[in-house]
Request: fold
Amino acid sequence: MSRCSRAFTLVELLVVVVVLGILVAVVIPQYANATADAQLKATQDQLIKIRRAMDVYYVRNNNMLPAVTEGNGTWGQIANPGDTYLRERPLNQWVGGPNAGLIVFRTGPDTSFHTNYGWIFDPATGRTWAASFDGDDVPFAR
Reply:
């Protein structure tokens, strides 16, 4: 008398569980890196937009810089809602949190990572840097 078995064996189930475990071990770190990469790229993109908007404003307004003030997202004439320069307030996703849009006045870039502010603006020259990035626009490790 032959018996037809339609169930999986314990060995087959263990092989499937091990393969799934290996896949999860590979995918989870890649997902974590993807989030950090997205924050880095978003901040670099915002920095490029700010610099371009500054340059265009400077040329269109007889070599004058916009009236940027220190504070939370106060980019003067280049970041008004619906404006032709910047359509929204730029945020530094690398810094993140409530200070991502905060602007401070300084004459150079940061030297280490922090979350105190999002952007650095030099009112004398119009140069702009992302907080927690060096002078070459490379982020500091968190």
